[in-house]
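yo, Adenosine kinase is done. seq:
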Amino acid sequence: MASDEPKAKRIKLEEKKLSQNALFGMGNPLLDICAVVDKDFLDKYGLKPNDQILAEEKHKEMFEEIVKKFKVEYHAGGATQNSVKVAQWMIQEPHKVATFFGCIGKDKFGKILKEKAEEAHVDAHYYEQSQEPTGTCAACITGDNRSLIANLAAANCYKKEKHLDLAENWKLVEKAQVYYIAGFFLTVSLESILKVAKHASQNNKIFCLNLSAPFICEFFKEALMKVMPYVDILFGNETTEDIEEIAKKAQSLPKENKKRQRIVVFTQGKEGTVMTKGDKVETFPVLEIDQSEMVDTNGAGDAFVGGFLSQLVQDKTFEQCIRAGHYAANVIIRHAGCTFPEKPDFH
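structure:
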């Protein structure tokens, strides 16, 4: 009989069965267009070798030219979409645990984004419109440098009443247990974020927000403060000054759902990740990586969140969520773009 014991234990240890659409993300879907270019190309469009900018009028033709002139790779991008894609990769089965909403154009790039989401087994439901083309981000690579030029275009056109409010779409929102939105989306549709955040709060589900970039805190503070009362988990990164201080401040902001304590999680690149729960501040070391193995640190923050969410949606401890976040980021920085091997090796 003894041999049956481990079996019983094994059954007990089996993962919580995840349902489809348990994780919901909404944000700016961008198609990353990556190519190794030459100095003449950078000079022609006035680009620095290593930079991150929003596209201006003078960059418009560049997006067509890069495709014609160089060998390009397409990756489905945009911060939130990257994170839910990584979460789905970490989870593996079932497919479509992750849902994604955002706006694209009815064009070739939009078609590629849909295909890429499908390949990643993410249940993407895009609002498609023809006023603006699909948002793109050109990654112009020269040696170790990459110059990123983002053209939001269609991503900026998401409309609550045209997409989120539709019964079949809202049903997917209601199916979710965990919600994640990057701060970048605050510039697009505050009313959509608030509708989702209030739903999460009223139903004691988990709503997560990322501060994303300094300009969000600086220029969209009012919108951010409207969402904060509903935030259960707040993510941020090393671009924010005095992390412990901010983490503590964020902890003390008013909160609607009193059943959940607000958690603040800040990554700091190769320094440890800081987490605050109430008065408690903890730092978790990241996984070491040899400089020579680092290919591209660009998607690391998105990947960390994706790893974190993959465990959160399975009711794992916050410590386990952070470990998974560190693992995912460590994998992503070894690859160009927010791409990964076929299967994760996370235990």
